[in-house]
Amino acid sequence: MCAVQKWGREAGSGRRTRAPSLLCLRHLHANISCSGWGNGYADIVKENKLFESYYKELGLVPEGEFEQFMDAMREPLPATIRITGYKSHAKEILHCLKEKYFKDIQELEIDGQKIEAPQALSWYPDEQAWHTNMSRKIIRKSPLLEKFHQFLVSETESGNISRQEAVSMLPPLLLKIEPHHKILDMCAAPGSKTAQLIEMLHADMDVPFPEGFVIANDVDNKRCYLLVHQAKRLNSPCIMVVNHDASCIPTLHINSGGKRDVLFYDRILCDVPCSGDGTLRKNIDVWKKWTTSNSLHLHGLQLRIAVRGVEQLAVGGRMVYSTCSLNPIEDEAVIAALLEKSEGALELADSSADLPGLKWMPGVSSWKLMTKEGMWYSDWSEVPSSRQTQIRPTMFPPTDSEKLASMHLERCMRILPHHQNTGGFFVAVLVKKAPMPWNKRFPKTGGSPAASLPTDAPHLAESVEGEGGGPERKLGGEAEEEEAFKGASLAQETAAKQDGVCGPPPLKKMKLFGYKEDPFVFLTEDDPVFTTIQSFYDLSPDFPKLNVLTRTHEGKKRHLYMVSKELRNMLLNNSERMKVINTGVKVWSRNSDGEEFGCAFRLAQEGIYTLQPYIRSRIITVSVEDIKVLLTQENPFLSKLQDHAHAQAKKLGSLLGDLSEPQCSIQLCGWRGKTSIRAFVPRNERFHYLRMLGVEVFKDKQGQKPSDGEKEGKEGEEAEEGTTSPGFPVYLTEGFPPRDGLL
């Protein structure tokens, strides 16, 4: 991802912006020196005396290491890639990287300098994450590195590889996701962590619809579409993108056993907006913009978001709080305030053994606060009244030493850049032991403002207007908390004003910004669409028809999408209280030529792994050579297929090509015309499947095919005709031999 965002999160400093963020997947190494960005960044000096004096005084860096810390901050950040862990092709991608590209790079010299091969991140499971110091300047000098770069770009766009900063991978790992978990990502854009959560949810590829789901939220409407772009690469029916202010994200309802219950999440990722001083290595404009005021301005918002997160967390659930800032005001101060207000309902989990190989510093229990003018304060009592609107009591450590010790702030984890050549980061894992005390304190009252609202009123309420029922509706703490939610809003607001800290935010009317999205309309079981689809594809009896939706109330349905039953439940029960940007995976698309075959809908490649377990006809098995023909030629004649596949395809319209191999399976969607056959597979997925079969696809710098002399000079490469796209010749290589089996 190109680090072009101004004050964005993850690709920026952490502060939010209304300007659209830029997503660029065409750079292997976006973290380059100042000169690489042109005149706009040429004069930036990587110095900030206030930053140095502040962190020296705080003592967060071990003694004797401060110079190493600052030197690391001035160095470009290594590029990091992560192989998509849940896809069945992950092992093949890793095999390709290690045996072809990495092995060749180890023996490569450019301008007399030996190139350092990418290294696996020691703490990331199964060698699924790698980092490299190669710059774009180096990549341009070597055709081999250029091929490697194009491989990464292509596989990133097809969802098999993600460009993601190393420390950004930590929060999803610490959440310990299981396929049945209900997950909320509160500040999700641009979506690299969300993608990780989806991957973990689909750990078992044999289950098309995991019981769990991911709700990915962001306050910025435009950045939500970056989030959609990331999520769509993974083709999951279990992801929903919503657009709300995380500090007052609405409480959602679900139908459980015929009763309306409040939704509590098993896992919550609370990666809050921050000042981003841990990103100095990739966001060099932070060097001149950093002041201590940034943290003071953001602390309150961070605390409100964290409070809203733990309110929606199920008892026994885990919430990970994280920032790309090293400042205790944004880190330990928020955690300490949260723990103090929870009165024992929350505790910090000890995650020291969860990621062996990761180097981190324990959280601190003592810190000071400095203004941008250089004034230091160690305690709230020292703050003059003129400053007390900007500086708040929750920014300081608790004064009760016994209470402070019981918080175990040392269980927080701070990642310093010079320890493992990463960015700076902070992460803390919270476990919810009981309902939040302000929910227990205020019983259900019939006269509260919340109680007088209709049940379908659109608003972002902390209290939940229920439909009656006693504690038996839920077990243990969740029942108590659900009942306590109801009617508590006014009392919460009063309590918050009294102590200056954060109870839940007051009742607000929901405001919708940005584009008006098309509706999500679920089909009924007797919808006429299913009549032909059912017989045409011979869908199995357990096919979940009720999970199919379209995006229009009127006219012809152009596309059909599928979601899991849990997301269907949420959509039907919360349509008026949340703004949904996107959900569902496309499974069928209308094809005007299909009616002559008996069905107007063809299969969509995006949803084939969701649909495949339910389809019992129109499946053909084809050879590896057939697949090469289908993927390298746009509309090959049927006669180009081998006899077995040719005979099967002649009888079908929309079809599914199937490859079952020991290492991985491939399913391709296609359509047979009168004399030809076409694979409806996006370009980058074509490239991916061809690589899995031993065919290398690359583009030379001029976008033209190499000359005959160049072809002859490529040892082990044989040109193969194709029409994949102009300027993208296809080569058979020896680097990744095809496996035996049928496609």
UniProtKB/TrEMBL annotation:
UniProt keyword terms in alphabetical order: Methyltransferase, Nucleus, RNA-binding, S-adenosyl-L-methionine, Transferase, tRNA processing, tRNA-binding
Enzyme Commission designation: 2.1.1.203
GO biological process: tRNA methylation
Biased composition (Basic and acidic residues): 701-716
Subcellular location: Nucleus; Secreted, Extracellular exosome
Gene3D superfamilies per UniProt: Vaccinia Virus protein VP39
GO MF, any single term: tRNA (cytidine-5-)-methyltransferase activity
Protein name per Swiss-Prot or TrEMBL: tRNA (cytosine(34)-C(5))-methyltransferase
Native source species: Scophthalmus maximus
